[in-house]
Design goal:
289 residues; alpha/beta; 7-stranded mixed sheet; 13 helices; 48% helix; disordered N terminus
Length: 289
C-alpha cells in the first residue's frame, strides 16, 4: 500500500521553481517508479515521519539530505529534524544553541559532535536554526551503548544515566538479528573483529540505540502531533523497515512512515534487476554509482 501511494504521488507534478536531484544518483520507489525532486518533496505531506538511512561517509547522500530538508520545509513549515548524530543527554545544549543562547563553539565543545559534523550535519542544524525548527537529539548516550556492548548489562547505572534509557527495550530474534550478526561476522569483521562471546552484547546495544531513537521520535510526535519529522540515521537502522522503523511502529502503529534507503550500483544499466533485488530495502531507493 505504501509503495502504491508513493508511486501515485511521484507521478504528480508541483508548480513553482524547477529543482533537480544531485547528479550521480537515481531515485525510485520500491514499485519501480522514478522519483523527481518534486516527488521527493511531496513525501512530507503524506507521511508523519520520513526516515533517511545514510552511508555516513557519502557526500552525495548528505547533499540529498539537505535538499530534502529544504524542499520539505517549503511545503510543511511545521517540521522537526531528528538526528542519530546527537544524543539525549545533549538535548538542552542543542536547544540552547538553536535558540541563540549559546555560541556555536561552546555548543560543539559540549555536544560531542561526530568528526564529520561540520561538513555533513552542520548544514541541517544551521537550516533548522535559521528557520526555528526543533532538532531532536535522538540517540542513546554513546558511553552507555559502549558499556552495554562490553558487558551486556545495564545494571549499576546512576539515576541520571537511567533517565536516558528507553522505557521499552527489546532485542528479539528474527530478521534484524540475523542481518546484524551477518554484518558483524562479515563486513565489520574485516575492519574490527568481534569475539563470538560478544556478538549478542553488540546486538543488544544496537537494539538499545534503535529503541532510544524510536522513543525519541514517538515522544516528540506525541507532544507535537501537528509536526512532521525527518529522521537522519545510518542505513542499517532502517533498511527493510527494521530497526528504528520497526520499533517506532510498535510504539505508535498509526504513524505513517516512509523509509529512504541507499544502494550502490556499479552502473545504471540494469535498473529493473537492481530494483527487483533491492526495492524491498526501503520505500524510496537511492541508487548510487
Amino acid at each position: 500500500m505504501i509503495a502504491f501511494l508513493l508511486a501515485v504521488a511521484f507521478l504528480q507534478t508541483l508548480p513553482g521553481k524547477a529543482q533537480s536531484l544531485p547528479s550521480g544518483c537515481l531515485i525510485y520507489t520500491a514499485a519501480g517508479q522514478p522519483v523527481t525532486y518534486q516527488g521527493l518533496a511531496q513525501l512530507i505531506n503524506r507521511y508523519d515521519v520520513i526516515v533517511f538511512g545514510e552511508y555516513h561517509d557519502n557526500a552525495l547522500l548528505h547533499q540529498l539530505e539537505f535538499q530534502l530538508l529544504q524542499a520539505a520545509f517549503g511545503r510543511q513549515p511545521k517540521l522537526a529534524v531528528s538526528l542519530e548524530m546527537f544524543e539525549r543527554d545533549v538535548q538542552s545544549r542543542l536547544d540552547d544553541y538553536l535558540a541563540g543562547r549559546s555560541p556555536e563553539e561552546k555548543f560543539l565543545s559540549l555536544a560531542r559532535p561526530w568528526p564529520n559534523y561540520r561538513t555533513d550535519y552542520r548544514p541541517l542544524v544551521e537550516f533548522a536554526k535559521a528557520n526555528s525548527l526543533p532538532v531532536i537529539a535522538a540517540n542513546i548516550p554513546r558511553a552507555l551503548a559502549a558499556r552495554y556492548a562490553r558487558t551486556g548489562e545495564l545494571a549499576g547505572l546512576t539515576a541520571e544515566e537511567s533517565a536516558y534509557l528507553p522505557q521499552v527495550h527489546l532485542a528479539p530474534p528474527g530478521q534484524y538479528r540475523e542481518r546484524f550478526m551477518d554484518y558483524l561476522k562479515g563486513e565489520r569483521a574485516s575492519a574490527m573483529p568481534v569475539g563470538d562471546d560478544k556478538l549478542e552484547n553488540y546486538y543488544k546495544a544496537q537494539c538499545l540505540k534503535d529503541d532510544t531513537m524510536a522513543e525519541s521520535i514517538a515522544a516528540f510526535h506525541q507532544r507535537q502531533p501537528d509536526y512532521k519529522i525527518i529522521h537522519y540515521q545510518g542505513d542499517f537502522h532502517s533498511r527493510h523497515r527494521l530497526g528504528v522503523v520497526e520499533k517506532l511502529q510498535l510504539l505508535d502503529p498509526a504513524l505513517r512512515i516512509a523509509v529512504i534507503t541507499p544502494v550502490y550500483a556499479k552502473d545504471f544499466g540494469n535498473l529493473p534487476k537492481l530494483l527487483a533485488e533491492q526495492g524491498a530495502a526501503g520505500d524510496i531507493v537511492v541508487i548510487l554509482q
